[in-house]
Amino acid sequence: MKTLTLEQEINPWEAQSARFDFAAQKLNLDEGLWKVLRYPNRELIVHIPVSMDTGKLEVFTGFRVQHSIARGPAKGGVRFSPDVTLDEVRALASWMTWKCAVANIPFGGAKAGSICAPHKMSQGELERMTRRYTAELVEFIGPEKDVPAPDMNTNEQIMAWMMDTYSMHMRQTVTSVVTGKPINIGGSRGRREATGRGIMIVSNEAIKKLGMRPEDTRVIVQGFGNVGSNCARLMAQAGYTIIGIIEVDGAIYNARGIDIEGLWKHRERSGSIARFSEAEEADPAELMLAECGILIPAAIENQITSRNAARVKCRILAEGANGPTTAAADEILADKGVMIIPDILCNAGGVTTSYFEWVQDRQGYFWKESVVNEQLEDIMISAFHDVVRYAENHSVNNRIAAYMLAIDRVAYTIRQRGIYA
Ligand code: NAD
Predict the structure, then answer these.
(1) What is the pLDDT of residue 333?
(2) 122, 296, 324, 404: least surrounded by Cβ within 10 Å?
(3) Do residues 201 and 159 share a domain?
């Protein structure tokens, strides 16, 4: 892979492109398809006027990038954050294409972002921004075109507003236009926990492969949001010992295992994981480097870079977040023998259950939670073994194997369809 400056190393688009180029080259992908798949199909920038509580008008900038619709409608989350960039949304959109292909579900890839500070906005301001944003995207999205979902700082309520706004424009209720909705309006049972559950399922497969058992496996989780908190809870229930949790405002550690149910209650009461009496306070950056069986970065990008990768001491790195490890860090971790479960495999449980939600909405028939979880387990286990087998057969690491498998599947579909060029 080419050498990058630190600024390039932490640019998610560079991180995506470095892996894509390497995998495409390994696959001997022909030059034309390489060009088609390297760049997104479409990128939309919208400027969203919002009437603020002060009575003043503010204008927010939003993006929607559709990387590919070769295998089905574009699919991907909506991120609200002050530092969202078009490059980040581009990278996340292509990761969605590869993730859906690894999970072998019939979607392409997309992502959206709006540059805003959601924690400083009132519910009314958030609702007005979401609705105007959705109205700007109305021709771009739809159940057969592009299906948004929640991501960082967006949730079931935001999805409900998006669904309602789109439906108002269509003059009919269209539940399947977004996923991650409340169950009452077409959401799927099991969706909320699905990404965390998927991480647990692939972690189970990984430890089996390494001859480890949940009871003897110590886990550290970064991020106690939707993905991290559900993952920690499910893994604790499955017998893993969660020794550390790292959040934006501090970290906690207990060598004997943190009581995750107690931590959930503490966080509900206090709004933070800090000052939880049954664990010690720890330094967040140091805890990322503590010895453990499984490290699960489940917060944001670029947490393991060329600066700290050599000091990481986990046996397995299960990437709950998108892009937590840079391409330069991959090489250092490979030399250390860390087994990586790459993001496009590891956190695919969310989009897989979003696929189930879309299917249920279109069928108008809703499954029991046990059915959702069983189907999820089937898909995640197959995807894990597809990637590991691919890695073994092609003598590459799991990350490159996941990219190669995904690119291979998308390229095969494009060749079958032919290119309208
Ligand atoms: P979230 O907003 O619910 O949670 C993120 C958590 O990370 C928050 O609690 C936040 O305080 C914490 N955090 C932020 N910066 C941090 C830092 N520097 N150190 C420690 N903690 C930090 O978001 P989420 O939905 O849980 O998503 C987390 C990651 O997982 C993102 O990369 C997202 O793209 C990815 N992901 C989410 C889903 C899903 O279903 N929600 C699916 C696939 C991938």
Answers:
(1) 97
(2) 122
(3) no
